[in-house]
């Protein structure tokens, strides 16, 4: 659980330090702008921008019932962030599994990626797709609706 918050925490600490340094140098405007940038970086790298994660078993059960894809992801992954942002509001319709919180999810990803935890790995109808194009994921979601 702590591992998911490591990068956002580092962004906040570094940003605070750099902003304080700028403020002491007599540049409060630059300090505020710098702090804002680091707060935004912490926000987009945090698990808070993702829909609520389910366990792998539960997500796969739900997917079998409603046909929606399952996305295996981890905090701090740039490709996961790209997928999440490009899906927009539709991201909430997918089933998300944080592999750092769910050992079964991490095992499922390793099983299809030669032992690597390569994310995002999207399962559509039981078939894995590693780092798919967000447009393709939206199409799959439209087909399941």
TrEMBL record:
InterPro entries: Glutaredoxin, Grx-like_ET, Thioredoxin-like_sf. Keywords: Membrane, Signal, Transmembrane, Transmembrane helix. It comes from Streptomyces kurssanovii. Gene3D superfamilies: Glutaredoxin (3.40.30.10). Residues 70-127 form the Glutaredoxin domain. The chain crosses the membrane at residues 29-50. Residues 1-19 form the signal peptide. It comes from the Bacteria. This is Glutaredoxin domain-containing protein. Pfam families: Glutaredoxin.
